[in-house]
Amino acid sequence: MTPDEHQRHNLFLRSFTAQEPAIRAFVRRLVPTRADADDVMQEVSVVLWEKFDSFREGADFRAWAFGVARFEVLAWMRDKGRDRLVLDEEVVTRLAEETAQDEPRLERQREALEQCMKKVPADQRGLLMQAYQPDSRIQEVARGSGRTVPGFYQWLHRMRRILLDCIRRAMAQEALS
Amino acid sequence: MSTELESLIHRYLDGTISADEMTQLNARLLADAEARRELAELLNLDSAIAATAAGWVSEKMEPRVAGIAPRALIAFPAAVRWLAAAACVALLAGGGWWWRTQRVFATVVKDAGVEELSHGAKLRGETHELKAGTVELVTARGVRVVIEAPAEFRFESAQRLRMVRGRLAADVPPAAKGFTVVTPSGDAVDLGTRFGVDVPASGAAEIHVFQGEVIAKASGGKTKQSLRGGDAVTMDQGASAARELRSSAFIQPGEMPGLTAGLAAGQRARSDAALAALKNDPSLIALLDFESGDLQPGVFRTVQGRWPGSRAPEFVSIGDHLKLDVGADRAWPQLTLAAWVRLDRLGAPYQSLVHTDGWSRNNPGQVHWMVTRLTTMRLALSGNTLAASVGERDGFPDSRTPVLPEQGRWVHLTTVYDSTRRTVRFHLNGEFDKETELSTAHPARLGPAQMGNWDRSDRKLSGRIDELLLLGRAMSDDEVRALFAAGNPYR
After folding, report:
1. Which residues of B touch A95 (CB under 8 A)?
2. B265-487 architecture in CATH?
3. Which of chain B's residues have a Cβ under 8 Å away from the Cβ of A17?
């Protein structure tokens, strides 16, 4: 690398590192599973670096990255998503637009999870973390918790419901204060 | 929000939705912005929980590593981690990237003389600089990494370690295949194996493979190279060149328990006391511990000795040597030579411990102390001859036992020469090994000499010498045993 390229690469890494969680969350909202999001993210990071030359310094990196990510999600759906139960392409397009607009609020929601997780009893929190491990098998986690698999899914739905309600309340409070 | 829609979204999210239900869900989402918002928020929460859970991995693994019953793993570590996460948020108020920074990539499981990191410390994406000592880490995927100071490094993920400088040995289980060490001059991608990476303060990085397979790629280079057990490369300017394996250059996980126990038992203080006593010995010719002041002239690297933060010369490249000029004023009827060394098994014909310049029958008694191709210790004095009854393979006094272990570690070598008794006695790690009788035994002559090489032809030693003692009398077996016991870094 020449010093110039090196500097450019550093600039990219700084921007990308800062925005990676937001880009990942953006992708996650458009594809069926977290593993699919990982798949797409690998592609996205490569394409972002390849196209970084066309990115004007000082412009909004996140908005630019969302544009690239949206394109990659649609490409992924046409390629790998064909035989899968996925969101309608039109739904994805609208979701991408709306959630890109709504990202500041969605980001605060993600941040508010921390406070809300504290209110979950420790044993349930541990179980949730187990269920969300990258390689976890729900059957095993369910068995370990003494629940049937459908029962465990019901429990997961309930936990997410409780957490989302808590997050919304926290944000409403924040808006008042 | 209708419970029917909500349960469709949850089933989509868990991958348990049916094709009919998916059609229903798509129809709802297409028609209803509020439904899309609900979906977006639930999936957004899903990412956030996953990001939190990613940091939780190593918390879960740690008790197993530390040998604590896994029963306590759910409640307690999570509570501790939330405090850390809260501190993180406070610092980075509003920055979305704390999700990344809070992930734990590796945990310290052993520390020998490291001030910056202690047992149980969690490593995330921050840079660490170690001035002294050695530390052993376990990554979230179970890779064992030993890093020796001076070092600067940071984890970019549990599978990616950036080494700015320093030396590491990694033991990679199959689950962590693909573990990558990034250096300024190239990358090492591991395919499930044991390997070492050396990034010197100046100069090219090296990759050494002890077992399995590693892919090496020099920065800026186009080609990748597959390295197998026993292979090593130097990476420089986009190209990698094969080199000899430095089997002892890296502290391996197996060596850490002995080193930490040695430090805890106060071995360093015992060693200092023994050295102080030797400095008052009237027969002392030279005692080099390489700690104070300028090091002797020569060409070598200065690296860590057997104590945290201590110094030792390391000989790596052809021509490396350290110059010495002691004891020239007289001849020495008795001479004890002792050293703490950490040497590679190179198969080179000779590795020089101490070689006086030249070698001539006109100047009898010149001392050449070395490790041979068979990794035995040898003491040759010019003009000396073996006793008739002695059967030495090469015609010189050699130790019986090979002195270099298969896997590198510190060893203590002693040879006691007595021209009045016409004997050469070898000791390995304080234990008497063998005595060779001579028929001609000249008093020893010292003066200008090299450690790690010879001025006549290359007899490069590969590795480190941490301490060298030259004593103008014959040490007894008990003294040699005590010298080893006091300086031993292991317990």
Report:
1. 29, 36, 39-40
2. Sandwich (2.60)
3. 97, 100
